[in-house]
Amino acid sequence: MKIVVGSDHAGFPLKASVVAYIESLGHEVVDVGSHDDQPVDFPDIAKDVTSLVTSGQADRGLMVCGTGVGASIAANKVKDIRAAVCHDIHSAHQCVEHDDVNVMCIGAQIVGAWLANDLIKAFLEAEFSTDEEFRRRVEKLKAMETGAE
């Protein structure tokens, strides 16, 4: 898979190990920044991450900020993006399996590198369920997004 990774300044220290781990799993990484520890606004990074996912230039996205919350809020403002904050392994795989999440957000101030690796592995190995109930629910989310409920 091709994975787009972005971070704000709070996530920057963790991002290098995240990128290296994703590459070690055999995936291609597109790093959209930030590229140093200088302050940057997470909505700007979210736009860069989500634009590659929605255009099909990346299969999934990963955002690293202080808590993951701001990144998730920003990413979820974009049509066709379903982003989730994941700080435990169960959520990291179930968000894909049940909710077809395409952007995972993690908090560098919440998790360390070893847990981030476990989260990433669970997220990238997960596949959206073929069960009708989960497909139906995601279709309802899409309808809410467009106001076509």
TrEMBL record:
One Pfam family in the UniProt entry: LacAB_rpiB
GO biological process annotation, one example: carbohydrate metabolic process
The keyword Zinc belongs to this UniProt entry's keyword annotation: no
PANTHER family: RIBOSE 5-PHOSPHATE ISOMERASE, RIBOSE 5-PHOSPHATE ISOMERASE-RELATED
Lineage summary: Bacteria, Pseudomonadati, Pseudomonadota, Gammaproteobacteria, Oceanospirillales
One MF term in the entry's GO annotations: intramolecular oxidoreductase activity, interconverting aldoses and ketoses
UniProt protein name: Ribose 5-phosphate isomerase
Annotated family: Belongs to the LacAB/RpiB family.
Entry-linked InterPro entries: RpiB, RpiB_LacA_LacB, RpiB_LacA_LacB_sf, SPI_LacAB/RpiB
Alphabetically ordered keywords of this record: Isomerase
Residues forming the catalytic site: C65 (proton acceptor), H98 (proton donor)
